[in-house]
Amino acid sequence: MVNANAQRQVEDNPVPFETWLAELKAEALQEGVSQRILDLTFDGLTPDPKVVELDRRQPEFTQTAEEYLEKRVSPIRIKNGRKKMQEFADVLDPSAKNIAVQKRFIASIWGMETNYGTYTGNYNVVRSLMTLAYDMRRSSFFRKELLKALLILEQGHIAPDQMTGSWAGAMGQGQFMPTSFFAYAYDMDGDGKKNIWTDEADVFGSIGNYLSVHGWRPDQTWGREVKLPDDLKARQALVDLTHEPNPPKSCKRALSAHSKKYSLDEWQEMGVRNLDGSDLPKVTNSNIEATLLMPMGIDGPAYLTYQNFRTILTYNCSNLYALGVSLLSDELK
Ligand SMILES: [Ca+2]
Fold this sequence. Notes:
Blueprint: H1 4-10, H2 17-31, H3 35-42, H4 49-56, H5 65-72, H6 75-87, H7 89-99, H8 103-114, E1 123-124, H9 125-134, H10 139-154, E2 164-165, H11 178-184, H12 200-213, E3 223-227, H13 232-239, H14 252-255, E4 262-263, H15 264-269, E5 273-274, E6 289-293, E7 302-305, H16 307-315, H17 319-331
Helix pairs in contact: 1-4, 2-10, 5-17, 6-8, 7-12, 8-12, 8-17, 9-10, 10-11, 16-17
The structure holds calcium ion.
């Protein structure tokens, strides 16, 4: 149902839509978008009230961490992931090798983002971005994304009627925003197009490239679930470890829930063990630093997270998201 309120809010822009659109098109022409692409994409296109409604929607209830992870790392998703990895092995294996990111992590993000390419969103990306750019709430962000989306069409990576995505403009099987497309999409099969919608080689290459550019370590995993000392006092002391003094601004919210970094040797000395009680891995040639994360509180599971966990956070700055990707990747190993 179209929300009348949403319709009213999209009209908050004091500039009439037709005037706004004419001005936008002029800017797009200056940016190198052709009249042909503008005619093809904007013909009869009007703002989508449904998009504004979704943009205003408050989550109806907050899932607990357990519920979130159960849903995201469900037995069916694990089963489908294993099947998909086999089905696409001819493309996934060489892509992962080429880009130097373990294939289970590429598959896991693919699974988390679009259920392995089966749910990429059916919104017309240009229409969604145009709506959100015309709307006043975050217009400058979405205007920039819209201009980039038009340039993607101009460069012929995908046909205008096939450029679909989420209601907020995240595109293709890895859900890239247009600016991310220009920064990280990767033409893995070398046909001159970065087709993150229907070409799996490019999908895997692009997800892998995103991780690679953000500091992925192919010789390491994401981290591990660990066992803290039984002694409650010792346990509390670990939980109380100073949090990162200056988490990066780009993902402050999630990273401020992590402890300070210590080496695996130091964690071992503090009494932290593998889940089965055995010693933490002894790393001889590189010094793995890890942070302690307990997303479900002191009684919940404890995780030591490595650099790759932080890289996953750049894809989506949420500890539960990154943990979902991580735990799913373990199941896809
Ligand atoms: Ca390609």
